[in-house]
Amino acid sequence: FDMFVLAFVERLFRPTFKKDDFVLGKKLGEGAFGVVYRGSLSQKPSSKKEGDLVLKKATEYGAVEIWMNERVRRACASSCADFIYGFLESSSKKGGEYWLIWRFEGESTLYDLMQSKEFPYNVETMILGEVQALPKGLEREDRIIQTIMRQILFALDGLHSTGIVHRDIKPQNIIFSEGSRQFKIIDLGAAADLRVGINYIPKEFLLDPRYTAPEQYIMSTQTPSAPSAPVATALSPVLWQMNLPDRFDIYSTGLIFMQMAFPSLRTDSGLIQFNRQLKRCDYDLVAWRKSVQPRAGPELRKGFELLDLDGGIGWELLTSMVRYKARQRTSAKAALAHPYFDREGLLALSFMQ
Ligand code: ADP
Ligand code: MG
Q: Would you say the CB of residue 175 lies under 6 angstroms from ligand 1?
């Protein structure tokens, strides 16, 4: 129960806000369950005209997203965008709407950065704040991708150690925080907190089919349903061990690794085509490689070459993430200890996290 007492005390001492306290700016995104805006506090007009906050107006699932963000802030704050406040704004319509406020972390998601012809060098510049003197080439690209992977896995390990499965890991939900010069996870709208049974019966229809693991359901259908209210249960850690729900996110992270290594998979159509091919190979990456390598174009060849550096250590990590059976996939923590990360990354200094 400590967690709830703490949450209550913390809330007492934090400022509270209502909708009128904010001015909305540019729309950043719109999904089926909410709209996201850039904005600022109306009391103290921010010096930056665009606003230093991000505001999400959410429908029925807003309550769960607020819960997840509160929990992340207390347990693993550095994993996700800085959450400031969430509230229910009652309106004349029944139910009202939920508002969530974060600090504006930066202009670009990993998706935006991957669309650039400069990728991954554009990320190198953002992480280091300068351009490296090393010549461009596979080795340097591999170091950058390695650093990005490390940051994503580090953030993911924080979530998983807290008991949260994100379920919507994709480049669009990974933001580059310009303040801390590292990638953070956003959009906990589809997340499940299994240790306390929040959002336990998953809304599978929310998930992005381009990045979902083949199992679709993160818990076996035989497991009893957990309470829907935020009531802590003691049995959840056991269920976690039985089902390894975190491996769902690992599969999605493996696909991001693939997209970074293979330029041809960075487009929607490229990724969808890859998913089709992999399914035809029964989700066996080695079989997929055998099937495409003989007729591989320069972009695919480049990806294999990058993953084959240092005795194929990158390929080894990738194949430990993208596997059909969740149980055979590595965890975020184990992945971070993989020899792929032993080599020097971008700069030893840049990831003293
Ligand atoms: P949804 O996907 O449900 O529309 P997200 O939470 O993913 O909502 O936010 C939508 C977009 O808004 C993100 O892809 C990102 O571009 C931007 N965004 C969200 N949170 C932040 C933040 N804290 N800082 C900067 N940009 C953000
Ligand atoms: Mg999103």
A: yes
Q: Is 282 part of the annotated catalytic residue set?
A: no
Q: Which of 264, 222, 253, 255 is nearest to 331 (CA)?
A: 253
Out of 82, 142, 168, 187, pick the active-site residue: 168
Our answer on whether the CB atom of 36 is closer than 6 Å to any ligand 1 atom is yes
pLDDT tens per residue across span 103-148: 999 999 999 999 999 999 999 999 988 766 678 899 999 999 999 9
* Closest ligand (CA of 169): 2
**Is the torsion defined by CA of 110, 116, 121, 125 positive or negative?**
negative
What pLDDT, on the 0 to 100 scale, is given for residue 349?
A: 43
How many angstroms is it from 209 CA to the middle of ligand 2?
14
The two tokens of residue 166 are: 């994100």
Residue at token pair 């992340």: 72
Rg (CA), the chain: 21
Cis check: omega of the bond before 120, within 30 degrees of 0: yes
Pocket probe mutation, ligand 1, options 64, 73, 187, max atoms within 8 Å of Cβ: 187
Q: Which of 169, 230, 205 is nearest to 1 (CA)?
A: 230
Q: Given ligand 1 and candidates 27, 54, 169, which is best to mutate, with the most ligand atoms within 8 Å of its CB?
A: 54
- Residues 159-204 pLDDT 10s: 999 989 998 899 999 999 999 999 999 999 877 766 666 655 455 5
Please tell me the pTM assigned to this model: 0.89
The pLDDT confidence band at residue 51, using thresholds 50, 70 and 90, is confident
